[in-house]
Amino acid sequence: MKQETLPGGYPLTFYLAFVASFLFFCSIHLLIIPLPLYIEEIGGEASEVGLAAGSFAIAAIISRPYMGRLVDTWGRKPTMLIGAIMFVLGPLSYTLAQSVPLLLVARMFHGIGIAAFTTAYFALITDVAPASRWGEALGVAGIAPSASLILASPIGASLAGRASFSLIFVGAAMVALLSIVIMLPLREPETASAAPETENPKAHRFLSVVRLRGVWAASLATLAVGLTYGGLYSFLPLFARDRGLGNAGFFFAVSGIVVILTRFVLGRVSDKVGRVPVILPMFIVLAISMAGLKWTHGFAMFLVMALMNGLGFGGTRVGLDTLVVDSAPGRARGTALGILYTCFDSGIGAGSVVVGALANSTGYGNMYLLAGVLCVLTMLIFAAIMRR
After folding, report:
1. What distance in Å separates the CA atoms of residue 284 and residue 379, rounded to the nearest whole number?
2. From CA 7, how far away is CA 352, in angstroms rounded?
3. What pLDDT, in 10s, does the model give residues 50-104?
4. What is the pLDDT of residues 123-137, one digit of tens each?
5. Are 315 and 139 in contact (CB under 8 A)?
6. How confident is the model at residue 311, as a pLDDT?
7. Cβ(134)–Cβ(326) under 8 Å?
8. Is 353 exposed, middle or buried (0-12, 13-18, 19+ CB in 10 A)?
9. Domain contains 197
10. Do 173 and 220 lie in a common domain?
11. Which residues lie closer than 8 Å to 209 by C-beta, 6 or more apart?
């Protein structure tokens, strides 16, 4: 069934999904500051704060491939609803968890929710957007998580000092519930309409999707992006403190704003010139932003690196995401996106561990320099693979 387009060239489903995604991510971003404080209140230590973050990520990583398959078999909207329901129940379960072990279980349940929702969300976006505008559509769709971080995390920080933790958790659950309300009128197109008529049914199998060059090459490149992302955001506050660079929050704010602008602009550019011509230079920009931190000793340069990091990160992500969508058959698109985001999540988790080990032996500056070198090597390997 063809859906009527609205101003902007997208159907109503596109805009409803965007708003639902914004609210969904607001729910989790409200808890960024309050949750570590809550863990301390119930007797947790710094290491257990890390375990809470790790359990959330591990659950998302493990469940991604299964959720990708669910997206292709049950549909986009049902899987989005499953993820949103988990985001309602997750924060509510925190109020019942009066010990760290119980909280870790609740965090794992919560992590499955983000795997379900995000995989289905981006698959739905490409289903309802014209193929000629997939880069732009995914760029716009990716603005919702970034915008929610900029808005919701300061609100959560403010509430942490004024409201009880139970009230904050209930508030996060209500925001997720609102996202479900927004999704109810959402109309999902028939999945078959997104797939070419000549599509091979065997292409829907997981291993067949993995073997698609555009899928595995983009996923491995995304793994490298995740490694740099995890290392940067895990240790930047400590790096900024040691260098006397001021509040690291300014870096995150500048980078986040640039990511929003970059995803939209470079998504449109990739529709015109191709994905690879966007991805390769953005890897160089990302490499400069990482390696440049080694020689950053002033606040102005710190913000320049933030700007370049937002540009490089946003550009590589929108290009790689769209390349996977280009490469995967319509009925296997959820599986392909599940593979991609599994690599990104794994990169973030591994980046926090590997980069932390490097920091202990080489220092933060050299650690970021090595991350920049990794970006250059990834770009060269990716270029060689895609040149074929």
Report:
1. 8
2. 42
3. 677 778 888 888 998 889 889 988 889 999 999 999 999 999 999 888 888 898 8
4. 999 999 888 899 999
5. no
6. 95
7. yes
8. middle
9. no
10. no
11. 203, 215, 328, 329, 332, 335, 336, 339
Supply the DSSP string of 364-377, one letter for each residue. Answer: HHHHHHHHHHHHHH
Residue 46 and residue 194 in contact, taking contact as beta carbons nearer than 8 Å? no
Query: Could you tell me which of 56, 125, 163 has the C-alpha nearest to residue 325?
Result: 125
> Which of 189, 213, 241 is the last residue in one of the domains?
189
Element (H, E) at 27: helix 12-29
In the listed set 189, 211, 229, which residue is the last one of a domain according to the structure?
A: 189
pTM listed for this prediction: 0.81
pLDDT, tens digit, for every residue of 249-268? 788 888 889 998 998 899 99
224: domain CATH number is 1.20.1250.20
- What's the residue count for the chain? 388
Residue 361: count other Cβ atoms within 10 Å of its Cβ. 8
Between CA 289 and CA 308 the distance in angstroms is 5
Q: Do 97 and 120 reside in the same domain of the chain? A: yes
Instruction: Report, as an integer, the average pLDDT of 206-235.
Output: 86
**Angstrom distances, CA of residue 341 to CA of 147, 186, 238, 334:** 19, 24, 27, 11
- Quote the tokens at residue 355: 């980069």
Can you give the residue range of the structural domain that contains 58?
Answer: 12-189
Closest CA to 367 of 352, 377, 380: 352
pLDDT score of 193: 38
